[in-house]
Design a protein that fits this description.
single chain; mainly alpha; Four Helix Bundle (Hemerythrin (Met), subunit A); 5 helices; 69% helix; 0% strand
């Protein structure tokens, strides 16, 4: 395995960890969308970065899903969800962390569907790109 593949696999492991927490919170009716999103956003972020590693695309340290997704689409990757789904999660990375507010209409099920789509897509994409 190459360094990039090793790094990608580690990021996928971490993304799966975040997804697990997201799934647990989703099952709790009183859990807030902000709390669920707090784990949904980094799960998607790490999965996108895993594909960037294998593609050999350098990226800056960022939590911006829009930026990461644009880098992938510019490289010819077809994302498993629309950019709007990723943009909805962006504020959760930083802004919502320190406030308890509305997530601009995004619902827990939509967040989890986005996580599921990206986490199913990324390992398949990495498997197709790896030597």
């Amino acid at each position: 395995m190459t360094w990039a593949t090793d790094e990608a696999l580690e990021y996928l492991r971490l993304a799966a960890r975040d997804r697990g927490t997201c799934d647990i919170l989703r099952a709790i009716p009183r859990a807030s969308e902000a709390a669920i999103g707090f784990h949904a956003q980094p799960a998607v972020e790490k999965a996108l970065k895993a594909v960037l590693f294998v593609r050999g695309i350098e990226f800056r340290r960022t939590h911006d899903l829009d930026e990461l997704a644009n880098m992938l689409t510019d490289a010819g990757e077809a994302l498993p969800c629309g950019l709007d789904a990723l943009r909805w999660l962006n504020p959760v990375a930083v802004e919502v962390r320190y406030q308890d507010g509305d997530l601009k209409g995004i619902k827990r099920d939509d967040m989890v569907l986005t996580v599921e789509a990206v986490l199913a897509w990324s390992p398949a994409t990495i498997g197709n790109l790896s030597p």
